[in-house]
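Subject: sequence -> structure tokens, single chain

Hey, anyone have a minute? Need the predicted structure for the following. Not urgent.
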Amino acid sequence: MASKRICLAVLFVFCLPLPLPVLSVNTNINGTRGASVLLQCHHKLESPFQPQESRIYWQTQDAIVLHVYNAGQEEFGYQDKTFQNRTKIFPDQLSLGNFSLVIEPLMLRDDRISLKVVYMAAAQAGITICEQTLYVAAPLQKPKVEINHTTMSANCSTRGVYPEPQISWTSQNDSHIPEHTLGQREVQTTVTCEEDGTYSINSMVSITGSMTCYVYNPTSNQTVSAAAAITEHTRSRVIAIVVFIILIIIIIICIAVGIVCARARAGRPYAAPEIALAPIDDGGMAPEGLLFYLLCAPVIACTSIIATTGGSAVIPCSLPLSVRPAALWFYWQEDNTENILFFWNKSGKEGNRAEQYLNRCQAPNYNEFLSGNISIRLDNITTGDDQKTLWVNAGSLDEHSKTIDEFHKKCKCTLLVTAPYQGPVVTISEFNETKNATCTVYGGFPEPQISWTGLGKSNNIPVELQGTHTPPEQDPADKTYNVSSTVSVKNLQSVTCHVYNPRSNETITSTEQIPGEAGNPGWFWPVIASAAILVFAVLCAVGYCVYRCTRCRSATMQPTGNTHAALRTSDNASPAANRDAAADTSQDAEEQEHLV
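Reply:
Had a minute. Here:
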């Protein structure tokens, strides 16, 4: 026994690093942190599987061992400690060529590891099969959007994201105008890597209307969003801030006019300072690439699958079929009907299918059939496929054309179909002094759940509202729903409609301002009145200052008419008359100086 273990160790150390023949193409697998992932691997055996003379290694490209099967049993002595108690294989299906491996739970450190299976059969050289790259994602949490009324900015934040997400903003100033996506230079985003390896995101933009923040995970292809709208309370504060800024500008103008007057009195011209404008560097924005990846469906039985209209759904199934190529048969059928989706007979040819499934079903290749993978993919999903249960019958024939290894109604799977809703569109109507808001969504499936929230007129506190739902209308052709809901908006300044799709677990919202119901704080109109009075007073002061400066410059640069008369009289008058004229001139000068 000791010598056997020594030989195994020598083979593991010296044989694995050697280049081995590769019989597969590298594929990508996506998983979620904390969940399990099936690394699918099916290999067509060229000779019968002999457990006592076979060795199988599941390892990374860097020779980190995840799992070992040797001489008919699993061995954990060479397993890397980071994968201990986290891996599982299917020993009873190894003879069928099913070398799949389960990892549970997934961790962030498993992201982007490249895996392969090394198979060494009796008296044969080792081969490398089923090369795969594993991508791990942490599920997104709904972001939180907060509005800063002082800086008039919106901040979007979320935590616990992996890998680093992509964040974007849209703005909508009017419900009848399409949303506008903000450019990269309009968004300030900060990404922080936490101790557990996840990312925290904080993104800030200036408010230009109803703002929506979108966070996208490129690995899980998941997008979550949150919205925030400007209320009338915010608009009132904006007006107050604008009035304050105007007052500051007027005060600066008054100071500038005063400086001009002072320099005019001193007889010096006013020279405006030169302001150098620095050139603006608009920079260059590199386009962000999208990460495209391949979603591989695990080959296991399922209970239900959620599919989107127009898309595809993979119905997985793996059965322990030990058959000869010419003896295999199986067919997929819709439950409680005679509709056949896909049929494969012993001659290796497809049989008849129901008309509604023609050109819609795809199956793996022939080699996958022989290893037990008889999954199918249904394309062009419609609402008519909702709640359909599918199953497979399979088996093989012996040399006397007698059925053996038959499996009946296996791998049952129910399709749950969803279609995204368009809208919602919120309209405000008034009848007999009563204002109502109506929310309409259309083109979705299944029937949604609609709820309302409103912003109070006086206290600006969000409240939940009870709406009246009209019976849904279902399109006779595609079976999608059009749904409306109405709610009273009395004493509200804004109302928000929330539409929830229970099948896709998605919520879309729309906010509408109530005309004539915008609430203003108690200090709003006093501030406006005071600002108007102050602006009028400042303008009067500026006008008076300009008028006095003009009179001042005229008096300084031109002599008065009395002075000329006094000078002409002094040439011919007596000394007494000259003294009287001089006295009059002096008195006029004193009055002029006093006036100035």
